[in-house]
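Honest question from a wet-lab person: if I give you the sequences of every part of a complex, can you actually get the arrangement of the whole thing, not just the pieces? Trying it with mine:
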Amino acid sequence: MINNEDKGHMRLAIRLATESVHKGGGPFGAVIVKEGKIVAASSNRVTLDNDPTAHAEVCAIREACKKLNTFDLSGCVLYASCEPCPMCLASMYWAHISRYYYANDKEDAKAIDFDDAFIYSEFALSPEKRSMPREQMLHDEAIVTFQEWTKKDDKIEY
Amino acid sequence: MINNEDKGHMRLAIRLATESVHKGGGPFGAVIVKEGKIVAASSNRVTLDNDPTAHAEVCAIREACKKLNTFDLSGCVLYASCEPCPMCLASMYWAHISRYYYANDKEDAKAIDFDDAFIYSEFALSPEKRSMPREQMLHDEAIVTFQEWTKKDDKIEY
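Yes, you can. This is the full assembly:
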């Protein structure tokens, strides 16, 4: 059930998206809320920071983790002015975001020439059919690192 | 065709992954190369920086973009000590990485309890079947931001 608090948080995400258009960033905003309180709010900073990973959701996750001093945002709710792209959605899984709301969707993003739908369609293909070529190599050398990780007693898992 | 230069770059990614285990980070490394020259090299910094988005590939992309002063890494090759997770793969699409090599794969990562395979399996489900609940809201308000974006003459697209 969407309530007035949810609407307030989403309107902030939308306002950040609109302000970003005026400032020269991408038209996206995101807000992260924990126990009813806003812990992070960011717009897209890709072109402003020359950082292709600086989508609003990723920036908000980084900001929330810094503020809460943790890499685990379990219990947090994310409000995104647009449906998260695969990078952002996966980052939300890694951060253990509990649920999310979105306003515009990936078809809207596609209509204004963002690659979200293209990347989702690439993910739906088997790796050898994707447009980005890849090849496995030196597996026998790299697996040793994972064996060291397994043996390590004091590792911090995430 | 994998040549000795490729092997050298991958061995650096693997060395960074191993050093990361010793330093308290995750067992992953990544190297980005442009025209034969290394432009960025990073290990996983999730637990060291309290940043769930600080996978080796994402850190290397950020570093390469900073160094080259661009958000577009077209022509760059990425060497990852482990098959990129969905977040990293999508960030590589956004950055226009041209191709990539990997050593360990997502099944190896799963075997040492990393969530890569789980997130890939979530992506294969339709959104309503995924474990992270979501809901669309305020679409009519958010679409106005995209209309403003469309009308803006001096926007920087990416």
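Two things worth pointing out. Chain B has seven helices and five strands. Residues 125 and 131 of chain B are 10 Å apart (CA to CA).
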